[in-house]
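Notebook B, p. 112. Complex prediction, attempt 2.
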Amino acid sequence: DAGITQSPRHKVTETGTPVTLRCHQTENHRYMYWYRQDPGHGLRLIHYSYGVKDTDKGEVSDGYSVSRSKTEDFLLTLESATSSQTSVYFCAISEGPVLAGGGDEQFFGPGTRLTVL
Amino acid sequence: AQSVAQPEDQVNVAEGNPLTVKCTYSVSGNPYLFWYVQYPNRGLQFLLKYITGDNLVKGSYGFEAEFNKSQTSFHLKKPSALVSDSALYFCAVRPRQGGNTGKLIFGQGTTLQVKP
């Protein structure tokens, strides 16, 4: 978890409310990712960023948006939370496949447990 | 569709015995291959990776993995299991084609239980 923090670590919210999760890194890595972890599904990519203001969708992006205005911060927003978005959310960072010849490993934050009632 | 399969939800092994956690993939070309471990209430930790070269890759905590191109497998192994190895293990792949997006495809995870 070195160099990566996520806030909040736990959140309970009501259906229909907006929620923003924050990922902060001190490693100056170019790539940042948001995943959700659900039993039986492993980790699924929501969105990722390959630089400031450069983002793209992952496999489960519906209902989520992201923003990256600084290298160190990557925000995940649920515009109107639903019960299906109850999950554990992980942020990850990496140097980027170009720099590492494709083999760069991702480093993960401690996770945010989100419950939508 | 590209996918990663970990056929066992749980693997049980006695302490001191060898362990194997299986991973197969369906990805075109020769992907980059990774193993991660997750301890309770923690994020994932990188264990090892295969990029190219020797099919046997050594990683952290005494773990190793064997890449088998013909079987499209990347099984995780350890010669002698410890109780402290008990955790959730994820296999992940990154296709070499399709641009340098860095995206990983994860398996669903295998729980390793090592009993004293």
